[in-house]
Here is the input.
Amino acid sequence: MAKVRVAINGYGNIGKRVADAVAKQDDMILSGVTKATPDYRALEAIKRNFSLYSIGDAKEFTEKGIEAQGNVNDLLAISDIVIDCSPGNMGKSNVALYKKFPHLKIIYQGGEDASIAPVSFNAQTNFEKAIDQKSVRVVSCNTTALCRVLGTLDEYFAVKKARAALVRRATDPNNHKKGIINAWAPVPQFPSHHAHDVNSVMPELKITSLAGLAPTTLMHGHMLFIECEKPIKDLSHVFSALNSNRRVMFLSTKQGLESTAQLKDLAYEHQRPRGDLYEVCIWKDGMGLDSDGELGIHLAIDQQAVVVPENIDAIRAMCNLASKDESMKLTDDSLEMGELGIESIKVSKTVEN
Amino acid sequence: MAKVRVAINGYGNIGKRVADAVAKQDDMILSGVTKATPDYRALEAIKRNFSLYSIGDAKEFTEKGIEAQGNVNDLLAISDIVIDCSPGNMGKSNVALYKKFPHLKIIYQGGEDASIAPVSFNAQTNFEKAIDQKSVRVVSCNTTALCRVLGTLDEYFAVKKARAALVRRATDPNNHKKGIINAWAPVPQFPSHHAHDVNSVMPELKITSLAGLAPTTLMHGHMLFIECEKPIKDLSHVFSALNSNRRVMFLSTKQGLESTAQLKDLAYEHQRPRGDLYEVCIWKDGMGLDSDGELGIHLAIDQQAVVVPENIDAIRAMCNLASKDESMKLTDDSLEMGELGIESIKVSKTVEN
Here is the structure.
């Protein structure tokens, strides 16, 4: 089978990560990446031997001594599928451009409105819906995390209603200009859009949400209250259920992982590229049942990494390259997922979970 | 009636605020305040004409040119009641000291374990329980806020179950050493102690909670999901109910109050002493009902100020100086509470709430 030629339109925080992941897949070829500005990130793309294309005029790149192979039109003409990694809500301005290439399949990111594509995608939850689709939207990092965790819990315990309180990071680590700083800024809306977005993937799941912005760049934090139809007799059943999901990993403050700062440190120490955590992180000792048997969980989500595997699986579904299970295994193996969880970093019997 | 002589043991972030508030009451006299170290805060107490007492040796103060009237024993001997404003969980080490003064009544703060006193106190919710008590614990800022809001909602709509997600401030604004910085640190416990603490005041209220620390010094943020027994037909009923509580105030992002940063700015502009917000702040536009009629609310809580009125009311209850309603009105008037809400700062008909 011919390899699928994948273009990344927008070599930013998501684009560069998805590009690396595409390059690791045996059934895909990275046809090229685009950039709007010829800056250090463009040089990094070239260093990786990625074919670089300009979004605007290629001359601007040449003037700075950075060789672009052409512009975005040239790249799209030689690609089977494009992953739109524009900044949030900017993908819609590319819809007209993509229409000029009738053969092209398109993946949008979760920053776009759900209406941009017929399917909002999460690999574990609705892979099948994306099969042979022309365009798909991979939902945001927060929604991806909620789908993974609630999807698994729903399967095992039948979620009655989930309430999600989201502590969103202010901006990404490579942005020094945007805040917030030293404050808490609630999103003035109930339910916040996150509940609706989960329903764009799992329409039957009962969920409500509140969100706000905190002055951190590292990861998002979620506090979840989850009522289930099936009684949870023992917390170990929840652990087993969620631990069976390779895109979720358990960690503990008793291992010194007291905050998102240590989670990222662990990822760097483990030589994860860019310190990326593709897995949703769950504090095992932050999980519990209240007197009603309702489940409480603390999550942390690496906003730049968590959607990377979903983009890869979306390509496979849309191009009908593999079944859901095959695709997820290929993706997870290529990213070495599941090696950082509580079992893996336990160094001796004396470390308590 | 003779005025009640009130001692403040520990002139720190809470102590200095309660001292000012005591000094404003016609039925109380501030007999003095204690400090462990002769620093700038001690000088500020003297500038206010407060009688200063040392916690340790008074000589240390004299050597620094700061005149102490004596030590804590001298102050307790001439006081009717002491408000223990030690750092969190340090009040218990003063229990033996207070026992040496059989006439003395004692108020502890919420940083102590609930077992330190027979009553955990919130003025609006259980004033009567503190009447004539020898010792009382005024619950923490977070618990005080939850009691005010949930107490009012319970009265009007009968709370079925409340779920509180707390975004706690890392430390106080005058502390430059303690973190956290640039991370999210969940409290690894479900339910967090906050739910239990609310039940120390309102044993019948069904509540569960999760909490974490965010890198901000200004205020705590709460995200609340509240199920009520009585159907809420219109959000305006919730607004009316909560707005009838002078210790709660409504604000809106549409007034430019988008985060805790602007809330504090408003308090400073309004010349509130130390920029204090004694009221629990609620974002009116952050309040809503989901498709089940469940209520969602964003709160912000000034951790240094919100318990000040409760300490004053606790004195009145314990010394039987006034009824609940009389006491709360005297306290609220003296602190000019209720002047900062959405109605008060509306400058023209064109400002949307």
Remarks:
- DSSP finds twelve helices and 15 strands in chain B.
- Chain B touches chain A through 53 residues (CB under 8 Å).
